[in-house]
Amino acid sequence: MQPRNMSMSGVVDLAAVKAAGEAKAKAEQARAQRRQAGPGEAPAAPLVIEVTEATFEADVLQRSSEVPVVISFWTDQIEQSRQLNTVLERLAAQYRGRFVLATADVYANQLLFQQFGVQGVPAVFAVLAGQAMPLFQGAAPEDQITEVLDQVIAVAEQRFGIVGQETGPQDAAEPEPAPRPATPQELALSAAHDALDAGDLSGAIQAYKNVLADEPANVEAKLGLAQAELLARVEGADPQKVRAAAAEAPGDVSAQLAAADLDLVGGHVEDAFSRLVDTVKRTVGEDRDRARLRLLDLFEVIGPDDPRVAAARTALARVLF
């Protein structure tokens, strides 16, 4: 889930599959380096940092490939935001390295404030492998905050292989086990990612389908396939002609599908979803089914956890039922 106007990767990151693979590789590399260094040879990184616009890339973007980074936008002038930071700092210590807390004073970091589309403070976001997601705004009970943090940590591990590095005396007594060899499914998925990264869309599509044939529930393969098929559909398209055709013929389902694809690739997620929901609403039979299935495909590209997908699913249900 991306905050509005996030300049680092746009509203939709069509390289999310690549980012996930790179994040897993970086996380494993960092863990290997820590094992080689041995306990006590390198100082533990701080669990709470004060981030600025100048340090954002190093302290947040780069670090988010190794550990979930939680950003708290706050100001000393609002008591509620000071209290929330106190809670988050205590939780960062309790979680002992499973996430890092970065605090950003909104008055000293107006550019970050605008890039994340923050509406007010306190506001809390997470960054995983360079991908930002809004968590919550305003005060919240500590038990609800811990539930959100647990979800962030789970998503970081499941999607990106990022597990952080717990700190404490048990590190020396319980060394991390050696990484296991990659499974055939993981090797096939890596080959699919490589094909997508190289621009071999047909090869990537077939590779992802091969993975899904053996493992139909593989979320990463589903996402990769949806992205590869989307890129294949818009490849070589003339945006002006596509949009003009859609505007001239609202009832032309093919024109609306093509325009929705371009909307999504251009980062206009809500526009793409709304266009297809409207198309479903005013069509019947096979045309309605085509629009509905394309909308479900685009949901796969964005991911089920994105609130825009949840909103569009609700809108789709209203027009269908």
Automatic annotation (TrEMBL):
This is Putative thioredoxin. Residues 36-154 form the Thioredoxin domain. One of its GO terms (biological process) is response to stress. It comes from the Bacteria. One of its GO terms (molecular function) is protein-disulfide reductase activity. It holds the Pfam family Thioredoxin. One of its GO terms (cellular component) is cytoplasm. Transmembrane segments: none annotated.
